[in-house]
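One-letter codes give the sequence; backbone shape is given numerically. An example follows:

. . .
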Amino acid sequence: MFNIGQYGRRSIAGLVALGSLSIGATAFAAADVDAVRLINSDAEPQNWLMVYGNYAAHMHSGLSQINRDNAGDLRIRYMVALGTPERASRHQTTPLAEDGALFIANGISEWFKFDVSSGKSAEFLWSYDPEIEGTYQRTRGAARMGSNLYINTSVGARLIAIDVDTGEPVFDASTLQLGAHEVQRHSGPPLAVDGKILVGQSNGSGGNRGWVGGFSAEDGSHLWTFWIVPGPGEFGHETWADDHDAWRTGGGAIWTAPSYDPDLGLVFYGTGDPAPWGDPEYRPGDNLFTVSTIAIDVETGELAWYFQETPNESWDYDTVNPKMLYELDGKTVVGNFSRNGFYYTLDRATGEFLFAEPWTNVNWTAGLDPKTGLPVDYDPSKLLQDYAGIAVRYDRPDVESFCPYYYGAPTHFPPTYDPTRKVAYASGGLDCGGLSLHTPLDPLQDWEGKSVGRGWDRVRGDPAHGFIYGVDVLSGQVVKKLHMKYPLYAGLMGTAGDLIFTGHLDGTFAAYDKDTLQELWSIRTGTPIAAPPISFAVGGEQFIAVLAGGQFVNMGHQDLLDNYRRSANLIVFGL
């Protein structure tokens, strides 16, 4: 996909076959992870160096020793309990694997390094606790570059560099940005790019405005900020057309890490919904740059292009699912599953809309304009959009059914892309829902730093069910479907062994055939799984690793989750 000649090409002979894997550095003295290794991460299938596997966000492993023929022989090789402190919120971390070492965190961002080079056990090397206060805690991953592991915090807006050999902090820097309320959070993982660490502000619905920022990997110093909700004098500010400064609390959260094209020098983020999401009359206008794909110059932080999916959105249809990068008929594109029910394909260099198709049942619009990608019922002359007549309004306090229901459609749980099949797979929960607006917000009140999403009630019909869908990226059409009783909240990881792995809220961890989506193997772990798995190899042997232990959003299945307890465990599977 990327032209790597200017960076140098690493030898990959023998790696995929696993016949001649070697560990270049021991788990006790890790080699530096430089820009070349990160750009060419696919050339190291024995490692998992970044949260989505590569800069293109494919969540795909090139390892094939574990495959559809032997998946039924998988077993637990070893487990490690990571602790379940009372202040833990959700265990959602994607592990990193590097040259015989695993990095993993529990629900309070307490990070661990284990030596797994024996293939038989995880030997403790160090742990680091950032000592975050409060109960709103979650971490979805870390970034690896140079000799450091980089983490950001879901409470307190901090970026911390940890020495990978000693576990000691190298720096602990504040990422707090003036221009937003001080309650700033980072629930999405950071990304390391050429001497920079990129983070995003995730507290969108809490009376805040989103931003993405670049910080120095050397000392954590601030380099640049791009505001998701533009302030006075900035391009796009006119799309917040109210008379009470709704932009100050306009949302636009960042939940996931960006993808990155080193040839273009651009990172691609998906942004959250405008706030308050259930009250568009509080914030008339298109509300840029919420519910958008944005391309940011990684050196300057300047906006290269944007594509907004749903102007003046009112159903919590953000587009935060990771943006996958791939080639399509000789053109470099970015593709993504949106919460609004469409799979979008955009030109990666320009942001030009190419095409989009629904991946599920959609009733909030009559369709998309094939030229612009905007909803056909979007009226640019109006400050309030009604779409299919089910947008939230003060004089229409009850919206009985909109599809898809926002909760469970793909959000932070990553999809996986198969570059051979050219199929993108996503998972989540599906149903339709309603909304009752009972307390219109008072524009005279100050919502900064407060929750602006509590003036309405979510109304659900039947409990949501889970799914795995595959989309042919050449056409945008759904070509694979699997439904299950419980929603999936862990995301997917695909392998060159023709398999997809994922965890379930009922504690099941399973492998599926990519072509048929038939379950080939599963095991009950006894605790909900809401974290993406990874694959790695040591000593010529492939393994699958996942963090089990908790996601307590019931999706209509409280009878199931009432029987579980949070229990953070690293589980490693092998043949």
